[in-house]
Every structure is written in structure tokens, then in C-alpha cells.
Amino acid sequence: MSLAAKAGARSKQQAKQQGKQQTRRRKKSLRIKASRRPPVLAAGALVWRLKNDKLQVLVVHRPRYDDWSFPKGKAEPGESMVLTAIREVAEETGRQIVLGRYLGKARRRLVSGRKKRTLYWAAQVLPEAGPGEGLRAAVKPASKREIDKVRWWKVKKAARKLTHADDKRLLARLVDWYESGQLQVHSLVLVRHAKAVSRATWGYGINSEITRPLVMGRGQAQARDVAALLSAYGVRELVSSPWRRCVDTLAPYAHGCGLDLRSDETFTEVSALTAPELMQASFRDLLERGSALTGLPGRGPAGPQGRASAPEGRLEPEAVGPQGREPGLALAGQAGPGAAGPPEPSYPLALCVHRPCLPLLFETLREYMGPELATKLPDSDPWLRPGQAVVVHLRRWPASVQLGTTPEGDVEAGGGGDVVVKGTRIVALELH
């Protein structure tokens, strides 16, 4: 080869190398820019049931990735994470669900370099005639190219066959809650009423306070958002201050579900000023009554010492039934053929109150939780924004148990924790 030819070959090789370097630099720059963007938000659920006294979870197969995982998906613009979880489970499995405790999040980096954060809840299939389903938007089922298999698996099989480490970690937490009696909980949703017409516009004095309505547009939209939140947690009982702005906040959910709305004079602004102890006593009654419905110690269908034997044996894959229903199964606490657990229904409850009531009610909530969990409660005015809610999950322990806490501050039984409790305790809370 002549010198000129060799020089030309070297020049081409150098140009090729420079091109590759420029491409790498461009890709790196794009990844850095993507990593600085807000994370992609997604949500999903670990849907569980008890069948023949065995804990099972609902899993999906994605042919594009050839993996087994829990149903999940990206949030749509303006959609809350709880509604994303419900919609994605419905699209991918055909099941309408009701949420329980927040389980945790999974983080990963997309090929583009952008971060993705997926939030998960424990959940159960909404039973026949479950509350709030009519308030949910219709969903388009996922195509077979996206999800081609939906199965109920025993947890041992799921621990073996789930593809991703994050899914296995979340499953382990779900099993821990089940074994320590904290998977079946009672949820109470404490709501601050939606945006109301100002006193300057409506008038001052007690009569005006009683009748002051929600703001057209913004306040009514917040009331609809509250209805969607209550639907997500399967609320079946509604309690409110009798003043109009509180009643109107819960009215869309009450009307949409055909539920009665019980008013209670002890939760008015006047009561917060004149009878705070009575308000707190009434609130304790709601907390104690609700947690009592979560049943017996242990984890539901108990064996010796309140503990059931671990799942064993092989479960054949089981296809999802029509219309997203589970005949013969029930929510935690509901009696039904094929479902074990507490004999009485567990009805999630919502209470709507005024801003001046919140510090008193938060003080009462702190009586039922450890110091780490208490730090998650708002501690300054305005406590909650109009239409905002705090969801607390309660459990009753008839005998003393040792509890620890997770890094998130949630209560965790077992393992020789440093907190000894007996009676009703708040094991987790969420702000929405």
C-alpha cells in the first residue's frame, strides 16, 4: 500500500474515532440533562388475597420484556398517585381494587438517563357492589402486546419467579406485615373541607358560618378530588361537621355511592373553641371503634399462637375471572365463603372537619403513634390545605407486643422492637 493510501486510511480511522467520541459526548450530555429533569412518576399495587388460608399476590407478565412483575404504570398529567395505581391495575389485570397501606417505592434510571420513581400500595380486589366504583373513570384494557398473562401466585412462588429485585423486596415487606398482623388494617381518612366562600363575601356571625358554601369551581373541584380519594380507599362510612362546607365536601362521594352522611355537632368550629375535650373524645371513639373491626391478633386465619403455617405446595396458574371480580373472596374483615378473617366487616371511614379542629385531632392522633411516625403529621397552621386529607391506618393489639419502626417512620412488629404497645395503634399514615 502506498504512503498516500496509508495516510488516507489513517485519516478515515481518526475521523471514525472522532465521530464515535462526539456521539458518546452527545449521549452523555443528553443523559446528564435527562437526569436533571423531574423523575418520571408511576404507581402500582401488590394486590393480595387469602385463599385456603394461603396468602397470594396478583402478578402480570409483560411479553416485551419477558418479565413477571406487579401491575404498575406511569401517571397521566394531573393524576394523583393513588388514582394512577388504581387505573393501572384495572388496565393491566381487569381488577378494580381498594388501597390499603402504602408499601414503598422503587427507583431506577431509564435508558434516556432520566430517573423513574414508582410508588406501590398494598391492595385488595373491590368486592361486588363495592363503594365508589361508579365514581371511577372507565379504563381501556391493556393489549396482549403489553400484558399477556395475569396470575395469582402464592408468595413463595412469587418470591422465586418475580424478575426484579425491587418487586421481591416489596413482596417481603408485604409478607412481614401479614405475619405480624399488620396487613389487615382499618383506614380512617381525615379531611379538611374544600375551599369555601370567604366570610367577607358570605357574611359574619354563626348563622352565616353554618351556611357558608364551597366556592364555585375550585371548591367543587376539590370536593370531586376528595370523592376520588375516598373511592381509592373504599370508604363506607361518612361523618362530618353539620356545617354546609363540610357536608358539601363529602356530598359528591355520598351521592355517588348511595351512602348516608352522618353529621356530628362535636366536630364544628364552635366545638373546637368551647368543648375541645368532647371533640377529642368523639374522635377517639371513631378510632377505637374502627380499629376494633380489624379483628383478632396475628394475621387473620390463625394457627397455633395466632400464627398460620407458611404457604407451601404448588399453585397452578389461575386466569383472571371476568369483570375483575373475585367470587367467594372478600376484603379484609369481611365474612364470605372461601375467605378467612375477622367475622365483622371493616368499614373504612372518612371524617370532614374545619381547620380549627385539626390541631386538636392531630394531638389525639399522636396518642396512638410513636414519636417517629408523629413527625410525619403537619405541626403548624394551616395543618392541611383546603381539600387535603391525612389517611391513617390502625390496628388493635389485644396483648402487649414489641414494635419497631421502618426508616419511613411506620410501625413494624416483630424483631424485638423497642416500643411495647397494647390496644389501638396507628401503624402508618399518608398525606394526600
From TrEMBL:
Residues 1-34, 293-343 are annotated as: Disordered. InterPro entries: His_Pase_superF_clade-1, His_PPase_superfam, NUDIX_hydrolase-like_dom_sf, NUDIX_hydrolase_CS, NUDIX_hydrolase_dom, Nudix_hydrolase_domain. SMART domains: PGAM (SM00855). Residues 1-21 have a biased composition (Low complexity). GO terms for biological process: AMP biosynthetic process; ATP biosynthetic process. It comes from the Bacteria. PROSITE patterns: NUDIX, NUDIX_BOX. GO terms for molecular function: bis(5'-nucleosyl)-tetraphosphatase (asymmetrical) activity. This is NUDIX domain-containing protein. It comes from Actinomyces graevenitzii.
